[in-house]
Each structure stands twice: as structure tokens, then as C-alpha cells.
Design a protein that fits this description.
Number of helices: 2
Distance between the termini: 8 Å
Strand content: under 5%
Largest sheet: none
Number of domains: 1
Order of helices and strands: HH
Shape: elongated
Length: 54
Amino acid sequence: MFKYYAGIAIMCVIFAVLALFFSANAATLATIFMGMAAAFIAIGFVTSGPESRW
């Protein structure tokens, strides 16, 4: 599951970079997307242990 959540986090980082270039509300959107990326990485770390396998 860690690879799945890491992939979503990488997509959120890409969205944040694109928001910086193409958005009128660049700072707000980039902050939101980076927060989402951090949340998905945290979920990935929490669910990566052998005792937490689904």
C-alpha cells in the first residue's frame, strides 16, 4: 500500500508545481496540494508495517 499512497503523493506534488505556474491563487492551491501529499505519505507510513497489512 505504501507504493500506492506514495504515487498519489507524487501526483499531489506535481499538481502543486503546476498550480504555482498556472493558477491565480497559486500559494493557496500549492499549500493545499502539499498538505494532501504529506497526508498521503503519512498514511503510507502508518499502513506500511507487516502488522498493518490489509
